[in-house]
Design goal:
- Helix 2 crosses helix 4.
- The chain has one domain.
- The termini are far apart.
- By secondary structure, it is mostly helical.
- The chain contains 5 helices and no strands.
């Protein structure tokens, strides 16, 4: 038996999100949105990390999510001005 098709384009009101997410999850969601906006403006990874007060690995992770995303709202994001395929981020040697 196959899985039923689920509509993934559901609109979730902010109030419900605030009740479902922990304070930490809500803060990270806001940080990710801020990171997305700053990357769209063309800021460097380090300056975005400094402004949002997160690590550079978090900024790179959000950039990768945006690049690989199938979400229509994130598809509106312009091509990011840098490559995120940086092996040094996760300790891999070249």
């Amino acid at each position: 038996m196959s899985k039923p098709k689920i509509n993934k384009g559901i609109q979730i009101p902010d109030q419900i999100l605030r009740e479902l997410l922990t304070v930490s999850e809500w803060r990270m969601l806001k940080n990710r949105f801020q990171i997305k906006n700053l990357l769209e403006e063309g800021l460097s990874i380090r300056s975005v990390a400094s402004q949002v007060r997160v690590g550079t690995d978090t900024v790179v992770r959000v950039a990768r999510i945006i690049e690989k995303s199938n979400l229509k709202i994130l598809k509106k994001v312009k091509k990011l001005p840098f490559k995120t395929s940086t092996p040094w981020i996760f300790g891999k040697s070249e």
